[in-house]
TrEMBL record:
<dbReference type="InterPro" id="IPR029035">
    <property type="entry name" value="DHS-like_NAD/FAD-binding_dom"/>
</dbReference>
<dbReference type="GO" id="GO:0000287">
    <property type="term" value="F:magnesium ion binding"/>
</dbReference>
<dbReference type="GO" id="GO:0003984">
    <property type="term" value="F:acetolactate synthase activity"/>
</dbReference>
<dbReference type="GO" id="GO:0050660">
    <property type="term" value="F:flavin adenine dinucleotide binding"/>
</dbReference>
<keyword id="KW-0808">Transferase</keyword>
<keyword id="KW-0460">Magnesium</keyword>
<feature type="domain" description="Thiamine pyrophosphate enzyme N-terminal TPP-binding">
    <location>
        <begin position="75"/>
        <end position="190"/>
    </location>
</feature>
<keyword id="KW-0479">Metal-binding</keyword>
<dbReference type="InterPro" id="IPR039368">
    <property type="entry name" value="AHAS_TPP"/>
</dbReference>
<comment type="similarity">
    <text>Belongs to the TPP enzyme family.</text>
</comment>
<dbReference type="GO" id="GO:0030976">
    <property type="term" value="F:thiamine pyrophosphate binding"/>
</dbReference>
<keyword id="KW-0100">Branched-chain amino acid biosynthesis</keyword>
<keyword id="KW-0028">Amino-acid biosynthesis</keyword>
<dbReference type="InterPro" id="IPR029061">
    <property type="entry name" value="THDP-binding"/>
</dbReference>
<dbReference type="InterPro" id="IPR012846">
    <property type="entry name" value="Acetolactate_synth_lsu"/>
</dbReference>
<dbReference type="InterPro" id="IPR045229">
    <property type="entry name" value="TPP_enz"/>
</dbReference>
<dbReference type="GO" id="GO:1901705">
    <property type="term" value="P:L-isoleucine biosynthetic process"/>
</dbReference>
Length: 668
């Protein structure tokens, strides 16, 4: 089949000017599978804003009036999809067309109401939707075809599930009459995706389509956000709705993520009062903040108000970086396996740990038996303990047994705690924390003049050059050493400016996530901090940035290795580099081959100028920084060790006596 090519002029068009060009769809269609022809030509949708909106879900426990909605009558399933995207406020769709989903693509072509971004691979579409959702707080929407189109989004869906990212994936499917016949590009997408979604459903009747789409968006944003998949057989999207449908949707047990604080229940208020009592007793409290604080738009603001009121130090997980200003003297930055030594020591020394929207991940706790010994001891004596604020009740006590818990919206409950706490100077506690900060800072040996760059120096230079505009800079990352160096050496000051793959650790996440973030926040500079191995997973998405004129920036720390795995091979496998050495392309020429800009820096002498050129560039651009091969990321908590048993570096010994610490905290 001959297909037309994207006109050259479109490559330079502004993102929001020319939307969903017909040639973009024609040049990217997958092989056609089992199909049913549309029953009518594409109809105009100019009347959409004159229709009466469909009744949305009622609050839990409310009486549902089964009204009817005639506004969809005469529409194809594809046109209903378009209408529902408008009603849900969708501004952008990331996807890749194919035969089974063509009725939908035909209905949305040249839509004036939302953008369409075509990736080079469906995995890219999924990560773009994640980046968009994480940068904006809105649902990321993906539209793919059946079979391989749907299976290629499995990794992004699991990534979104692990990190609590709201995403709705619409996948094409063979006609209902062909399901179960092993038809071309048929796959049991419901079965495959069941474990990596909050909910999934196949729409078997066009009359169900508006309700199912509405449910998908509600479930994706309710409670802890996450991914939802809606499977769309081709005969359903090609069919024409003949009669009115029920306009009400009721989802038992699901509460929409509308942040209206009607006040806590008596039981919740009692739990909050108990937390306030523990705070008044504790001598060494600490706030352990996870991504849950970002689920509510007011989360970071309320967190700051609480810290000001109670004067408690704050440490954050990788996913929550930026939720609390790291230049605030009460910030202990990131904790965990590669977190700050002072943050880890604080967690082990604190007599009260208050977890806000965090899940006690193994990368944070280290050896669970040795985790938080002082807090556990204080909890037994009623003088402190571990407290968990969590929106999902099933996650309370899931990993760590807590002494008190508050379930529900973390931000709302934290707001109710503020009037109950008193400001204390905690001079002795902060003096100890500041001593650890001075004694155990993040550190590295600078490279000599003319030598290859140290990766830490690259991040320091970036941090320096964007210091005056941190509120307008978003960083995404791939997964590996570069991810940890970005967390350590860049100072995070604003929420939703750190976008990374945390729970699943998906290499290749950085570039497509940056594209999605830039589409959602075009006013921001968006930089993908990547490694050579991680970038290579999805590097072709740079062509997506070029095609749609999305000026993302990619900073590659190139050490010609899968650095994180190599570090473990260095430390624990006698430097047997099995499968970790990379043979890379010339990344500058790689960028130039896509009509993008390529810049390279090899030494400290070249770095400042190259970084300035990189930041000033108005086109998609790669800055390749050639870094040393043998640099490791420290601190590091080895597998099976406690947070206070971390290694600070090959030449920096942890001077505190871990055994003495353990005895003093837990007793003989």
């Amino acid at each position: 089949m001959r297909v037309s090519q994207l006109p050259r002029a479109f490559a330079s068009a502004p993102i929001r000017r020319t939307l969903v060009p017909r040639t973009c769809l024609a040049g990217a269609v997958r092989a056609f599978g089992s199909s049913a022809p549309a029953k009518s030509p594409n109809a105009t949708l100019q009347h959409i804003h004159k229709k009466q909106p469909m009744t949305l879900s009622t609050p839990e426990g409310a009486t549902t009036t089964m009204t009817t909605d005639a506004s969809f009558v005469g529409m194809t399933g594809g046109q209903i999809f378009h209408e529902m995207m408008l009603r849900q406020g969708v501004k952008v769709v990331f996807g890749y067309p194919g035969g089974a989903i063509l009725p939908v693509y035909d209905a949305i072509h040249n839509s004036e109401y939302f953008e369409f971004i075509l990736p080079r691979h469906e995995q890219g579409a999924g990560h773009m939707a994640e980046g968009y959702a994480r940068a904006t707080g809105k649902v990321g929407v993906v539209l793919v075809t059946s079979g391989p189109g749907a299976t290629n989004v499995i990794t992004p869906m699991q990534d979104a599930l692990s990190d609590g990212t709201p995403m709705v994936v619409f996948s094409g499917q063979v006609p209902t009459t062909a399901i179960g016949t092993d038809a071309f590009q048929e796959a049991d997408v419901l079965g495959i995706s069941r474990s990596c979604t909050k909910w999934n459903v196949m729409v078997k009747d066009i009359a169900e389509l508006p309700r199912r789409i509405n449910e998908a968006f509600e479930i994706a944003t309710s409670g802890r956000p996450g991914p939802v998949l809606v499977d769309l057989p081709k005969d359903v999207t090609a069919a024409i709705l003949q009669k009115p449908i029920h306009g009400a949707t009721k989802i038992p047990g699901k509460k929409p993520m509308v942040h209206v604080d009607d006040g806590p229940s008596p039981a919740t208020m009692k739990s909050i009062e108990k937390v306030a009592e523990l705070i008044s007793i504790a001598q060494k409290p600490i706030l352990y903040v996870g991504q849950g604080i970002l689920s509510n738009p007011d989360g970071p603001k309320v967190l700051k108000e609480f810290v000001d009121a109670a004067n408690i130090p704050v440490t954050t997980t990788l996913m929550a970086m930026g939720s609390f200003d790291e230049e605030d003297p009460r910030s202990l930055h990131m904790l965990g396996m590669h977190g700050g030594a002072y943050a880890n020591l604080a967690m082990q020394s604190a007599d009260l740990i208050i977890s806000l929207g965090a899940r006690f991940d193994d990368r944070v706790t280290g050896n669970l038996k040795k985790f938080a010994p002082a807090a556990k001891k204080a909890g037994l004596r009623g003088k402190g303990g571990i407290v968990q604020f969590e929106i999902m009740p099933k996650n309370i006590n899931k990993v760590v047994k807590v002494d008190a818990s508050v379930d529900g919206d973390v931000t709302a409950n934290l707001r109710h705690l503020i009037p109950l706490v008193q400001h204390k100077d905690r001079a002795e506690w902060f003096e100890q924390l500041n001593t650890w900060k001075q004694k155990y800072p993040f550190s590295y040996e600078p490279s000599a003049p003319g030598e290859k760059l140290k990766p830490q120096a690259v991040l320091e230079e970036l941090n320096k050059q964007v210091a005056h505009m941190k509120d307008k800079v978003i960083l995404t990352t791939g997964v590996g050493l570069h991810q940890m160096w970005a967390a350590q050496w860049y100072r995070w000051r604003h929420p939703r400016t750190m976008i990374t793959s945390g729970g699943l650790g998906t290499m290749g996440f950085g570039l497509p996530a940056a594209i999605g973030a830039k589409v959602g926040r075009p006013d921001c500079i968006v930089i993908d901090i990547d490694g050579d191995a991680s970038f290579s997973m999805t590097g072709m998405e740079l062509m997506t940035a070029r095609q749609f004129n999305i000026p993302v920036k990619v900073l590659i720390l190139n050490n010609d290795f899968q650095g994180m795995v190599k570090q473990w091979q260095d430390l624990f496998y006698e430097k047997r580099y099995s499968g970790t050495e990379m043979h890379n392309p010339d990344f500058v020429k790689f960028a130039e081959s896509m009509n993008c800009v390529g810049i390279r820096a090899k030494t400290m002498e070249e770095l400042p100028g190259a970084m300035a050129e990189f930041l000033a560039c108005k086109e998609p651009v790669i800055l390749e920084c050639v870094v040393t091969k043998d640099e490791h990321v420290y601190p590091m908590v080895p597998a099976g060790k406690a947070l206070h048993e971390m290694e600070l570096g090959p030449s920096v010994k942890f001077e505190e006596n871990a055994a003495k610490f353990q005895n003093s905290w837990m007793g003989p």
